[in-house]
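hey can u check if this looks right to u? its 143 residues, i copy pasted from the old doc so theres a chance i mangled smth
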Amino acid sequence: MNRIRTLYGLLSLLTLVFGMMIFLLLRDFNNMVLFSLIPRPEFLKAILVPLKPSIVSNFLRYNIPDMLWFVSAILFFRFIWFYKIKIQKAYILCFYGIGALFETSQLSKNVPGTFDWLDILFMGIGAFIEGLLYNIFTKRRFV
C-alpha cells in the first residue's frame, strides 16, 4: 500500500509539472493580470511553441492545463490522507466545490480570469476519470 501511496504523490507532482509545462510552452502571456503587477521574465516574452489555431490546439492550450492542475490537487489529497478515507473524501468534495466556485466567480468583474464552460467540463472529466481509476485500482485493495 505504501507503493500505491507513493505513486499518488508522484502522479500529483507529474500532473502539476505537465500542466505547467503546457501552460509555459503554449500560452501567450501578454494579457495576463499577473504580469501587469510584476515584470515578466525574458523567456516569457514570446510563445515558445506556436500552434496553428484549431479546436484541438485550443483544448491543449487552454483547458488541459486547468484539468491537470485540478487532478494534481485531487491526487495530492489522496496522497496525504491515503489511509483516512473519510477525511480524504471530505477534502476532495470541498475541493470540487472550490474549483467550481472559483471558475464561476470569474463571471463577475471582481475576479480576474475568463469564465469558460469547457474548463468546468474538462475539470469534471479529469475528476471523473481519476475517481474511476481510484475506485477500480485502489479502493478495491482496501476491501
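The radius of gyration is 17 Å.
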